[in-house]
Amino acid sequence: MEMFLRNFFLFLSKNRTLNRSAKRWGLRFGANRFVAGMTIPDAIQTVRDLNQKGLVCTLDHLGEFVFSEQEANEAADYCIKTVEAIHASGVQSNLSVKLTQLGLDISRDLCVANMRRILDTAKKCGNMFVRIDMEDYAHNGVTMEILHELLNDYDNVGTVIQAYLFKAADDIESVKQHRVNLRLVKGAYKESAEVAFPNKADVDDNYKKIIKQHLLNGNYAAVATHDDNIIEYVKELEKQYQIPRTQFEFQMLYGIRSQSQIDLAKEGYKVRVYVPYGDDWYGYFMRRLAERPANVAFILKGFFTR
């Protein structure tokens, strides 16, 4: 049943009709547990609150389905406004972006131009770090190509490596010389067994492998996990190889295991909370439900309390 629900919610996450409708619903059906608000001021206030608890953040303006050059440029403009708002407010946060939101499916050149505009603004705002979120496998190769291109001109950009993909270790090696800050994750999309490990145990093993690989390369790792076994594994690597805590951080999602985030920070680890915001929340919310179908209870509660 759990696998059925996972596949069901992943299927729903790609439904463009429901995505359009969700923008009219607002943050209903429990989505406000995982999404920090609809506007930049909402997001900044959430980051400020998390900072006061000893946590740093990365802000993600949600959006996945872009159909025109105008929409892509508007999305980039909004990301730029977010960077400027972070800088002006003095909160501790960086920015995460999706290339499809910046026009990748319309034109690669358009996407790269928008990405450069964001990075140029981030440079001016204290060389703020910008993370390119990794999307599904269909966009993986071109995302890595664009990252390599950007690394020729910028040192404030990185991306995400998904452990469930066979190519994960090779991708880490391909950017090794650039000393890139990489977020390491298990992966949340449904992919073919031709490109991804189908079994959870294999994904977990590969996740540990790439964490160790990247850390021993001497590069910065953002280990994004809610799995206690993985957290303990990183702590063991820290001790065994005398890895400084300035070389890695733990990352968790807004609204998930909030107390664990605070506890880790109190232990002296840097903990960064991934904070999504905006009205285009639907696809993100569906993927959170796919990761833990038990959260469907929040949807049902939303129907009866609105």
From TrEMBL:
It catalyses: L-proline + a quinone = (S)-1-pyrroline-5-carboxylate + a quinol + H(+). GO terms for biological process: L-proline catabolic process to L-glutamate. Its cofactor is FAD. It comes from the Bacteria. Substrate binds at residues 98, 287-288. Pathway: Amino-acid degradation; L-proline degradation into L-glutamate; L-glutamate from L-proline: step 1/2. It is an enzyme of class 1 (oxidoreductase). Its EC number is 1.5.5.2. One of its GO terms (molecular function) is proline dehydrogenase activity. Keywords: FAD, Flavoprotein, Nucleotide-binding, Oxidoreductase, Proline metabolism. Binds 1 FAD per subunit. SUPFAM superfamilies: FAD-linked oxidoreductase. Residues 43-299 form the Proline dehydrogenase domain. FAD binds at residues 134, 162, 186-188, 200, 225-226. This is proline dehydrogenase. It comes from Brevibacillus fulvus.
